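Students often ask why inverse folding is considered easier than folding. One informal answer: many sequences map to the same fold, so there is more than one right answer. In these notes we will look at a single instance of the problem. The structure comes first.
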């Protein structure tokens, strides 16, 4: 299984989804975030474009450019694959589940947890990063793109939490 996961990471690294920054459409909500992992120097600039509004807001595109290790770059590619076309609320849920996976220290989700199968189905290729979670320094690499996504959701006001609380952003 570990060899399969390594192959998934390598495939996403060699053929990344969403790589190449696209211009943001000024007629739609969109934002950009630049994140750096000071531990190793990995970095990403991510642009996220949204459609709809309120609780109906979806992510229409995620583009990025960056440099770094295969883990950080592959994780961003997997992120793009998982979030494009999804509602902001669903995206935030996927991001939370991915962070939970990174907290398992390489053990993955518990087999006796009823939610494990649905979490694994939700994460799809992101399950390949289970082994990465054994190494605290590498967790930051895997989370780099997810941090950029979270920052973009917050800075644009697209976050589902912001809408639930009635927070308005300029």
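Output (designed amino acids):
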């Amino acid at each position: 299984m570990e060899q399969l996961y390594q192959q998934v990471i390598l495939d996403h690294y060699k053929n990344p989804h969403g790589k190449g920054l696209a211009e943001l459409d000024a007629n739609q909500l969109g934002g950009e975030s630049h994140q750096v992992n000071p531990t190793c120097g990995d970095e990403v600039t991510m642009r996220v474009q949204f459609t709809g509004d309120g609780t109906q807001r979806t992510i229409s595109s995620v583009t990025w450019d960056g440099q770094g290790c295969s883990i950080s770059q592959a994780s961003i590619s997997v992120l793009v694959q998982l979030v494009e076309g999804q509602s902001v609320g669903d995206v935030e849920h996927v991001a939370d589940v991915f962070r939970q996976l990174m907290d398992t220290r390489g053990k993955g989700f518990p087999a006796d947890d009823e939610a494990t199968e649905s979490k694994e189905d939700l994460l799809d290729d992101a399950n390949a990063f289970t082994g990465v979670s054994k190494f605290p320094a590498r967790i930051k690499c895997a989370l780099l793109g997810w941090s950029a996504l979270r920052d973009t959701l917050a800075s644009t006001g697209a976050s589902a939490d912001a809408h639930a609380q009635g927070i308005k952003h300029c």
